[in-house]
Amino acid sequence: MTNAEIARAFQEKGWEIRYRGGNAICSTPSDMEMIVADAPVSVSSEAPQRLSIAAWPAPDGPDGEPRPPVFDLYDVDRDLEVRVRRIPTPEQAARLLEGRGAGEPATEPREGV
After folding, report:
1. What segment(s) does the record annotate as region Disordered (predicted)?
2. Long-range CB contacts (within 8 A, 24+) of 4-7
């Protein structure tokens, strides 16, 4: 999946692109490849939430074949992170993060999302 495809998929799922690698501030190769997007509005009915998703390039496999990227979901206010293999909508991300405890480390990529 290319960066352009990831950015398009984020937008199609309802995320708003905040950062797309390649600016003068970030100079490491991983930063150049990173894409970050935010949920447009609160997706929680109880309290406002600030949710973000980031795409990280995966290193090529041992056979040289490219691997799909992984995606980190963030609940900024509660300092929560979950790693997934597929791009959820902001609403799906809110539900996924809802049951997590504050300060828990990111999980391994989940197959179902």
Report:
1. 93-113
2. 6/35, 6/55, 6/69, 6/87, 7/35, 7/37
Give the residue from 64, 5, 59 showing the smallest Cα distance to 35.
5
**63-101 b/e with 16+ CB inside 10 Å = b?**
eeeeeebbbbbbbeebebbbbbeebbebebbbebbeebe
At residue 38, the pLDDT reads: 93
Query: E strand or H helix at 39, and its extent?
Result: none
CA separation, residue 29 to residues 17, 57, 100, 105 (Å): 19, 10, 31, 24
Q: Name residue 92's amino acid.
A: Q
pTM above 0.90, yes or no: no
